[in-house]
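Action item from last meeting closed. Structure (260 res):
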């Protein structure tokens, strides 16, 4: 799939990976780019830099997502490419993370994808074509040390993306799963620390990740990993889950010791 003349929607497009995707989609000749974000100033800045449109929306609100996507289709025409990209990583240990914090991550990281898919999929199926990207994380395939809601919600995103690919690929719908390791954005705190570098693998720039997304669109390839080491880790986990868990526990113990 080429992006030329496509109508593209990117959630979380005001910053980081989403912003880089908007910029690259524009360079690839997309017809319209809609930046959806709760950060109004950021969304407007990115939208004006790509000659696109900004929509302010809290992606924890399912009705608001449906309304905004319906309005976009009425104003700009069918959405060809939907990138469910916004995410938050505000949790921690299940014992100390309040339930409403779990709910917030669930709503933004998972349910925003569900609401958006429900809004655009019927028309995509009627047209026999549609492209839907889900930004998960390697936290959704491996884990996220210290953040149970993030790891859990990102695993759910992986499950949703796989399910949609299995069910709708042969009806013309292409699903894409972006599972980054560390990316240098405001989301990755303390991004230059030794810990961030070792735990999250090699840090990528958002622009590199956007290029990997466009390459996957070109090939209509489902899985987008940001570094080859992620594939090794996936293989290791699948081959011997007990050994993988042992290694992850050892890493957790090192993290605990370092934070004491
Ligand atoms: N940065 C990393 O290392 C990394 C690694 C793996 C996965 N990811 C995933 O990549 C995606 C993009 O993250 P990023 O690193 O570019 O972070 P970022 O913080 O730079 O961008 C996230 C954007 O989402 C928006 N957003 C968050 N909650 C929202 C809400 N309720 N409503 C509307 N907008 C909201 C923010 O305003 C922000 O503009 C996320 O899903 C994240 O989980 C990031």
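Sequence:
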């Amino acid at each position: 799939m080429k992006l030329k003349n496509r109508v593209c929607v990117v959630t979380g497009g005001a910053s980081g990976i989403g912003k880089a995707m908007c910029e690259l989609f524009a360079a690839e000749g997309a017809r319209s780019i809609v930046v959806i974000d709760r950060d109004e100033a950021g969304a407007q800045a990115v939208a004006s830099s790509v000659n696109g449109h900004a929509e302010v929306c809290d992606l924890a609100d399912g009705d608001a997502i449906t309304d905004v996507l319906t309005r976009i289709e009425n104003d700009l025409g069918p959405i060809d490419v939907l990138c469910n990209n916004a995410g938050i990583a505000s949790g921690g240990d299940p014992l100390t993370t309040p339930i409403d914090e779990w709910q917030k991550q669930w709503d933004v990281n998972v349910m925003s994808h569900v609401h958006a898919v429900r809004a655009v999929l019927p028309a995509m199926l009627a047209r026999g074509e549609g492209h839907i990207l889900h930004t998960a994380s390697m936290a959704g395939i491996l884990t996220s040390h210290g953040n149970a809601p993030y790891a859990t919600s990102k695993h759910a995103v992986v499950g949703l993306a796989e399910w949609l690919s299995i069910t709708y690929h042969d009806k013309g719908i292409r699903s894409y799963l972006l599972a980054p390791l560390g990316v240098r954005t405001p989301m990755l705190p303390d991004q230059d620390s030794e810990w961030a570098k070792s735990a999250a693998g090699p840090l990528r720039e958002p622009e590199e990740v956007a290029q990997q997304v466009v390459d996957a669109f070109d090939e209509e390839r489902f899985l987008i990993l940001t570094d080859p080491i992620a594939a090794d880790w996936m293989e290791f986990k699948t081959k011997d889950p007990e050994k993988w868990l042992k290694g992850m526990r050892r890493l957790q113990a090192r993290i605990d010791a370092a934070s004491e």
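Note appended to the action item: The chain has one domain: 7-259.
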